[in-house]
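Let's do one together. I've listed all components of the complex below, 1249 residues spread over four lines.
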Amino acid sequence: MANKNNLRHLMFGLAGSALLLTPQAYANETIKIGVMLPFSGAYAALGSDGRNGLRLALKEHRERLHGSNIEFIEMDTEARPERAPEISSALLNRHKADFIVGPVHSGVANGMLRTLRNRDTIMIVPNAGSAEVTGALCAPNVFRTSFSSWQTSYPMGQVAADKGYKRVVTITWNYGMGRESVDAFEESFTAAGGEIIRKMLVPFPRTDFQSYISEIASLQPDAVFVFFAGSGAVQFALDYDALGLRERIPLIGSGFLTEGTLGAQGKAAEGLVTTLHYADELDNPNNVKFRELYKSEYNRDADLYAVQGYDAGLMIVEAIDQLQGKVKDRQAVIEVMRNMTVPSPRGDFTFSKAHNPIQNVYLREVKDGVNRVIDVAMPALEDPARGCNM
Amino acid sequence: MTTSLFFIQLINGLQYGLLLFLIASGLTLVFGVMGILNLAHGSMYMVGAYLAWYFFTHTDSFLLSAIISAVIALSIGILVERTLIRQLYHRNHLDQVLLTIGMIFVFNALQSLLWGNDPQGIKVPDLLSGSIPLTDTLSYPVYRIFVAVICILLAAALYYTINKTRLGMLIRAGESNREMVECLGINISRLYTIVFAIGVMLAAIAGVLSAPMVSIVPGMGEHVLIACFVVVVIGGMGSIKGAFVAALLVGIVDTFAAVLLPSIASMVVYILMALILLVKPKGLFSN
Amino acid sequence: MLFQKRSERLFIWIFFPLMLMMPLFLDGNIFYINKLSSILIFALFVMSLDYLVGRCGLITLGHAMFYGLGGYIFYIIAPQNEAVNFWVYTFYICVISAAIALIVGFLVLRTSGIYMIMITLAIAQMFFYYFSDSMEFGGIDGVFLYLKPETSFLGIKMFDLDNPTHFYYLCLFSLFNTLVFFKVIMASKFGRVVDATRENPERTTALGYNVFVFRLASYVIASALGAYAGYLFSMQYGFVNPSMLSWQTSGTALVMLILGGMGSIYGAILGTFAYEGLHYFFEHLTEHWMLFMGSAIILMVILLKKGIAGYIEKLLEKRS
Amino acid sequence: MSQVMIETEGLCKHWGGLKALDDISLTFADKELHSIVGPNGAGKSTLLNLLCGTYKPTSGRILHKNEPIDSIKPYAFARRGIGRSFQKTNIYPSATCLENCAIAAQRYMGGSFNFLKPRNKEPVLLHIAEEALHKVGLGHRKDTVAAAVSYGEQRQLEIAMVLATSPCVLLLDEPMAGMGHEESALIIELLKQLKKEYCIVLVEHDMDAVFELSDLITVMVNGQHLVTGTVDAVREDPRVKEAYLGQGDEVY
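Okay, and this is what the predicted structure of the assembly comes out as:
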């Protein structure tokens, strides 16, 4: 149960926030990993899964660390952008973190980039999908193990057109991620001959969708494309179902609509079709092994956020291994990382010039409370990295 | 906007307004009688929803979990009033604001410790899971109608209690003149405990009723808190009748603003509130 | 003498020399210097709130509105690709925010007490949503300022704002000036009327003062300084976000103020440092820091009726 | 009779359906002490509140030196020199007695928007404030915090504050309420001195004091004007006796 886990974290926390994983006496070097994730507030679940994944990777591959001490410094961002510069400055300047893993929230990412771009550390983004991270604000020392908003929505435009939808309504929160996702969908959907008949923008973080859905019902589109995540995703699916539209107008979206939310959505999520770079059920050896390990370690099922955190951990492990623990030479670390193939549970991926994963995007459908993979919507998809001069 | 869509949106607005009233009524009652501004009121809404979810997953009965949750909320109310709120009767509003902000922190931390941070949901009770078709594409869930009816019944019950019963007489007297009630030999501290506990319970019941309709997530209380403030202030602080009118007003205005004025949708209710306070600085139904 | 109370003199003689020397102890550790700078900035903001709440008796839950406005006004009026003059823009920002405060104050000061708390909250929320829903101001993700102003004054370059230590001294300098500024105001003839309007507005009207005008003037002053704090904050990391205007920011400032002690000129500084210290301590202790923070706030309200400053004054009284 | 300072014409004040004050026409002359008496609820305090601008009249006019003043702002009354004391002690309890009077004196001395001038560095103003304290016999209390002085002294302070505004009209609302005999005697002496200089309107329950001090007495009942006259005329008027007896108020 979640509560036991949390109690244990509390105990851990009381014992001291810096946790030494390999306390061997002969350890030659301490490698500091700063973790900037939300541990309280609406995004707390995403933060703790990411952290768990990260720790799991370093624990699993302990023997590849060349005897380095790994020290975690965990900071709660509370998903508050205005705290981001301060916290990242703490990790960079006070703790002299070698790697900084974070954040979940794109607004926080913008604040972090402000202090970490081109500085003496490696930033690995394990979630925030804002285009700027590997677009206009890209930098040699910034990597992303997750996705770009474009990647998770662009393929859906093609899928929708292939399904024969002509008139589609889009709805999302009025914030960066939402608008970028809808734009990416529109890009491929209109290119394939579809028409967006209405673009609805909901003030963030409003979760009262009933009036919007009533409006959609009166427009009678062929399908509805949405980008919502977390509580918004749960609420939208619940309202969409409650008002009887799920049976009548197909609901499609970026995969976050049904990621980590299925328990709360229940039958309201059945039949929703989404595109994402991961699915719990992916049938590959890495994924099966990872999920087993995660379950036995944390007594809960792994999810996308755990995978992304885990991959950030794999990157760090790989870099330490190849450089034999000498990670102070950032240029060397960057060189290793940008040429790396990450053996991710989602399938192997490499990095684009802008340091975003080149990865498969899967087409998924919810059946019996699980995201089933129907197909690969677009294989080895690379983000266009607009605005990046790297 | 077609006529049918107009009426559908009107229903949406009314339903949202009724739920707002249920949450806000506890806030305005506590303020009216005790002069306490409880910022942690939204947290009680959250606690109600989490309790309902927790007991539903253990008992599988919505009614049973609703009753247990209400009883627990009542006990929390009594406990909080006896240990904390009691200290503040002779302090100013500022101290109350502060203490209840502290309570928000504590409730949020407890929620995260006890129930984790994953979004949760419970399914609508089978008996109420049907829906009524309104148009070709749109139908209205029975459960939401049920919630609206419960809200109206609770509003009527509150009205009856305040205007027709001995407790209500004391509440009304307490609003207008604290000393007088004390002179009448009535145990004012017990009255305050009861009123505060009822206020907490109303918020929790709103949380319980919302549980099958909303995503149960950390921080859900703070969103409704501000909406409740708007309702209570527009209605006139301490006025149940005012809260009722204001909640419906806010519900309808907010619903229509969302579709008609999308660019300023979230500002509209605050503009409404500012305008009303300019004309009637103490709200629509102030004493 | 400007600082009549012993506790005030004591505080000023300990705090400011200590802060002046702080960068020496910190030995150029950028994090601590930045952290201290941001605490000093927020202390300045809380001090402007203290003037309203503690000295004028006007309780507001919307003061963060001006904190955020300071940042956004700067973003809006400053050219994006050219370093502007710090002092000139300080003047602009104070004037523009004062003008906004004049209009807002005209509306909110018609009410009082709990209604004023609520209407200030409502107006601040309006601004919050305006910025968080607007596309041109970056919405909920906020905006960046890519260039820091230069600080030459009459041809002399005073601070290099890209240097954290310089920026730290600018913040300290601003805080000290603000403290002296408020102290001068409170000791002035204007301050006499402000005291009177707080303590007994009815009597003050009967004596022939237009209470509203004095409150409005105070509101404008406090708001302009609140905006100045926001301007400094936005400059520190080149970052403006709507959450600067949120009611949580106002609430935090109030918590700090009450923790430190209202109405005493240094309570705002004490409160900000104490709150940030507690927050920092609990956050490093456990991810459930909110539990301890919340309990600490509750205990403090119940036990420390006049905040830390009140406690110190009591101690000093006992000894003398 | 000397110059008329304040005049009311058909003054009415209604609270909803209740007529708190009904058609009152009175004149108050300079250098005279004019008392308003009557049983509880007669409208004495309402009248006073209208004269100093706290309430706005429902109908009727108020003239000050022959200029209508019923539509000016409440604070403007004091600026015209109409000062008042309150029935319930209404001072600045945490300030010193001197500061209380200084606040009052600063109003007409000006400079209230001077942000820089230290409040304690203006000898003229402080002198005026101190003089006002001396007038009411509180000179020795000037550095004491107002909350710390006795109740009677607080009443005296109220009057001193009014005096410090350099008024021409004093509206005094029960200055002797709740006082002991000796304290009352002090105030009576004080008022005897003051009425040589000011137009004073006095609302008071202590009839001995009223008879001793007044040049004119107006008796009000139920918001209506009953009679106005000299002390002797009022004392003998049968209507007055009836009104008081009818109310069951023990006056004599």
